[in-house]
Amino acid sequence: MSWAFLRDLLSGVNKYSTGIGRIWVAVVFMFRLLVYVAAAENIWKHEHDEFECNIKQPGCENVCFDHFFPVSQIRLWALQLIMVSTPSLLVVFHVAYRENREKHHNQKLYRNPGKTDGGLLCTYLISLILKTGLEIVFLVLFYKLYNGFKIPRLVKCDIKPCPNTVDCYISKPTEKMIFLYFLVATSCLCIVLNLSELSYLIFKYSIKCYLKRQMKKQQGSESDCCESELIRYNRAAAAGQFHNSSSSLPLNMQDEHEKHSPLT
Q1: Average pLDDT of every residue of the chain
Q2: 58 C-beta neighbours (distance < 10 Å), count
Q3: Which of 63-67, 100-104, 139-143, 207-211 has the least mean pLDDT?
Q4: DSSP string spanning the chain?
Q5: How many CB atoms lie within 10 A of CB 142?
């Protein structure tokens, strides 16, 4: 299987990720994809041919293998890698949509089309939630399908067409179990990284909204102070004009004015 498309996808997402997101990309690429391609794929390559039972009844080995391994572990691992990387396409498509929209309108609509804010931030958060959910689903699948994260050396099978209970032997059980534990550990690490990045982005966005709200309140209080100062100044100016006009009146009119003034 060619994994070049997944490599290109991860490198494309890396441009729009936070620091924690770049660590996630490195873990997926180095500790999961490369390990799968370089080692794990060869270990499970001939798992059906190397599954042996102590009876040569036609069809018995096939039925027992299908019972204990309903889905090949290595294929389920490959499917997990593809599925947990697919939500990152949402971010790439959203950035491409922004860039195409700017080209269509022939003007600058965004400060930076790849900056995680606004709608792109929501898309990024959704992709993180989907990746975390898929990781958990596949871990549960591994646990349920294979009776915990264990690969026994010997399994007993009594399914027809086997004439009686037969012993079947799994090849390389210790090596397979080590890689299975490695798979579980890297999946758990990716879950922790996704949750950490999700918490970081939500916290950062909350702080940003709080600071904006505080700035608006501060600007509103400053504008109210300016308005009150302006009203006070206008009143003082009006009072000054009234006093000047009354002082310019003749003496008899000033006496009359003082009689009718509410201050006397």
Answers
A1: 77
A2: 7
A3: 100-104
A4: ---HHHHHHHHHHHTT--HHHHHHHHIIIIIIIHHIIIIIHHHTTTTTTT-EES---TTHHHHHHHHH-SS-HHHHHHHHHHHHHTTHHHHHHHHHHHHHHHHHHTS---S-TTS--THHHHHHHHHHHHHHHHHHHHHHHHHHHTTTT---SEEEE--TTSSS-EEEE-SSHHHHHHHHHHHHHHHHHHHHHHHHHHHHHHHHHHHHHHHHHHHHHHHHHHHHHHHHHHHHHHHHHHHHHHHHHHHTS-HHHHHHHHHH-TT-
A5: 20
Give how far the C-alpha of residue 199 lies from the chain's centroid of Cα atoms, to the nearest Å: 9
Q: Which phi and psi (to 5°) does residue 163 adopt?
A: -70, -25
Residues 121 and 140: their CA atoms lie apart, in Å, by 29
Taking each helix axis from N to C terminus, what angle separates 119-145 and 173-247, rounded to the nearest 10 degrees? Answer: 160
Q: What does the pLDDT look like over 137-168, one tens digit per residue? A: 999 988 888 777 888 888 888 888 888 888 88
**Which of 105-109, 209-213, 223-227 is predicted most confidently?**
209-213
Name the strands in the sheet holding 166-169, side by side, starting at the edge strand that comes first in the sequence.
52-53, 166-169, 154-157
Cα(41)–Cα(30) distance, rounded to whole angstroms? 15
Q: Amino acid identity of 226? A: C
